Structures are given as C-alpha cells and as structure tokens.
Amino acid sequence: MNKDTYPFLNLEGDFIYAFVSEGIRGKILKAVLISPLPYHPEKHFNPLFNLGFGDVVRDDEEWTLDDSVRSGNGDMPKVIATVARIAMEFLRKHPDCALSFQGYIDQKSVLHGKNHRNVLYQRGINSNWAELSVEFTFWGGKAGNFEKYVVGNQYDQILVKIK
Amino acid sequence: MNTHMEKHKEMESEAWMEELLKDKERIIAAIKNSPGLQRRNREAAEMLSKLKPPFPWDDHYAQKKD
C-alpha cells in the first residue's frame, strides 16, 4: 500500500501508537489503541484485538481521547492510510492475531445511512485489494453476520488477519 | 522542493509531538481510559460473542491446520 502516510510513534508495547495530522486546522495529535477482546476458543480467533483511534486533546490540564470527532483537517485519506499502516505493522509482528475495526455512527452517518469512517476504511481496502488480499484475509460483518470480504459490499465491522 | 518542504514539515511535527509527549504517561492513561474506545471495544466483543457457527473463517483455519 504505497499511500501517503504520517510517520508514527509506538508509545507502549505494540498497542498504543501516535502520529500528528497536519492540515487546514493545524496540527492534531492522533492516537491508535489496539485492545484485546475476550477469547472465544470455539470461534477460532485467538487472540483477537480491536483497533480504535481518535484525537488526543488537552482541555485545561486534562488529556482526553475523542474517537467521535470529525477533525475537519482535510487529510482524512492520509489519516486512514496511516491507521491502516499501523494495523498492517501490528499484524506482521503478531501473525497469530486478528484485528477487528469499525467506524462510528455520527449524525452525518445516520443522515446518509452510512458509517462514514468505515466507508473510508473500505475505500482504502477496496482500492488496494489486489495487493492487500495477497497478504491478508478480510471478513466483513453487517447486522451480526460475517462473510468473506467482498469488494463493493458495505460492512459495520471488519476483521483482518495475516494469511 | 516539495520533498524538502515535506521533510521540514515532518521535522516540525516530530518536534511538536516530542513536546507533547513530555506528558506521555498522562496521554497514555487518557487513551487507555477513553470511554468512547472502551464502549467500542465492548460493542465489538458483544457483536462477536453473538456469532453462531458456521463461521466464514472456518476455511481459513482448516487450511492452516493442513
């Protein structure tokens, strides 16, 4: 995936990463958290992690991470490509792990009947499918049902694992 | 020219992040304790816990065993 991405830092273990988005609203600190999900041996995935990300902001003296914001920094494709690069690096380092990720449903998403961030994730996957599908296996979930990822279908949740 | 400008921008961003990361421990705590991310983890776990076989990844794991 030869997309333009931001350089990122690994803050803790292989589970917390940070990078700086730079766009029309200036510099915004972004963080990615990869968290373990409960183990269900009968469902094969062991271990399974969930990927989430958002903006790290300082309000007075308090730091918070807001994963529901639209930063409006004009660089969403580059941000998503950076998150994808982090996910790929994690999966290469941990080939037995699978990653789950989903976007968020905000007002605009509801209005358009789409999960906006997932649309961007999927646009990234679909436009790089020839390359990604050689190294990774994807599954897509909608309304609680998963299938092997089909380019063009829209999903609420995506699972990915190295082949 | 562009590459030079991009490199400069990148260095500026790195310096900016380094400055912020003086507060690294508190930033890490904020990330880990983010209610939004915790809620999303719960939702993902819940969705996966409800799945019933056959799973679309059975083939993948069967092939790995072989």
Automatic annotation (TrEMBL), chain A:
InterPro entries: DUF6934. It comes from the Bacteria. Pfam families: DUF6934 (PF22028). This is Uncharacterized protein. It comes from Dyadobacter fermentans.
Automatic annotation (TrEMBL), chain B:
It comes from the Bacteria. This is Uncharacterized protein. It comes from Dyadobacter fermentans.
